[in-house]
Amino acid sequence: MDQLRETLKVHHLRTTTCREDVLSTFINRKNALSHGDLEGELGENYDRVTIYRTLKTFLEKGIIHKVLDDEGLRYALCSHSCSEEKHQHDHIHFKCSSCGETNCLENLHIPAVQLPEGYHPEHFNLLIQGVCPKCN
Amino acid sequence: MDQLRETLKVHHLRTTTCREDVLSTFINRKNALSHGDLEGELGENYDRVTIYRTLKTFLEKGIIHKVLDDEGLRYALCSHSCSEEKHQHDHIHFKCSSCGETNCLENLHIPAVQLPEGYHPEHFNLLIQGVCPKCN
DNA sequence: TCGGACTTGCAACGGGGTTGCAGAATATTT
DNA sequence: AAATATTCTGCAACCCCGTTGCAAGTCCGA
After folding, report:
1. A21, A45, A47, B65, B105 from A42: Cα distances, Å
2. Where are the domains of chain A?
3. CA of A13 to C1' of D27 (A)
4. Which residues form a coiled coil (chains A, B) (predicted)?
């Protein structure tokens, strides 16, 4: 519990029950979550708008990152210490077509790509869809 | 012009002016288009719903494919002959943070990735964000 | 050119996401 | 411990995305 407050403090955020609950939801469920997921879990306690704003704040502060998905945006915890200034991710995301879960494969880096002359890459986002070990 | 009708015919679609216009828009503008882009271009001639349905039909028939984007879905022409049965893409998408355009890099294939035991990959989607040659 | 099959437009709806504002909660200072 | 400044929350309202049902219109093959 103190862990949550500590994380918020590091990122210069006030500790509120909503932020603690959203953060702990990300920590407990390990997979990437959509706003809808969070609303399903916490919607009775907090307004939808508050959850949207909490996500936006966490994004800006480097606590979570976006996960692209063919059916909408999701969010997942940043593993290492991202911050407001530096928000770098190069790991792979895997979405299971059976259970629908999307997960970060933290250990797998996106392979380097040789782009044609003139392209200046900044961010990479690789989504692999298929069947995960659990559903195999 | 006959080219358009031909393409539609190959995919077993009736030729209608809306489908011809949507298809030729994709051919003229080379980049990936959102529904909003098409509505901006053709919205005075056709209902939004019709454009949505045209996109959906083109998707199913293998004329266009989805392009993931951090701010919404886009669509781009399938280069080779995709069909209703086989709809395979393994090229890279590049989104320019300056001009906002998203393009297929048809010649660049997504590098192979060695996934851990138990994962069965089916589809790959790599979006690279950065600055494109035009905006350089 | 006729008829069945497909396509379109309209109306309506649900969900996703944002903004403005007033009131509540938090952190800070004394 | 109380007062203050700052930040956060809830509510209402709004716009955009995408879908569905239905009636009218269009296409294409016989």
Report:
1. 8, 6, 9, 35, 41
2. 2-135
3. 62
4. none
CB contact under 8 A, B125 and A122: no
Between positions 7 and 66 of B, the ones with CB within 8 A of A are 66
A and B: number of Cβ contacts within 8 A: 113
The verdict on domain A2-135 having CATH code 1.10.10.10 is: yes
CA of B18 to C1' of C9 (A): 13
A2/chain B closest Cα distance in angstroms: 33
Taking the Cβ of residue A129 and every Cβ of chain B, the question of whether any pair is shorter than 8 Å is answered with yes
Q: How far is the CA of A83 from the CAs of A12, A91, B125, in angstroms?
A: 10, 17, 27
Residue A83's pLDDT is 81
pLDDT by position in tens, chain A (length 136): 578 999 999 999 999 999 999 999 999 998 999 999 999 999 999 999 999 999 999 999 999 999 988 878 999 999 776 888 787 888 999 999 988 899 999 989 999 999 999 999 999 999 999 999 999 8
Q: Which two tokens stand for residue B100?
A: 């906002």
Which residue is associated with the tokens 């955020």? A13
- CB B77, CB B59: distance < 8 Å: no
Element (H, E) at B100: none
Question: What residues of chain B lie within 8 A of the CB of A131, using their CB?
Answer: 119-120, 122
Taking chain B (136 residues) in consecutive chunks of 10 residues, what is each chunk's mean pLDDT? 86 95 95 94 94 96 91 87 79 92 92 93 92 92
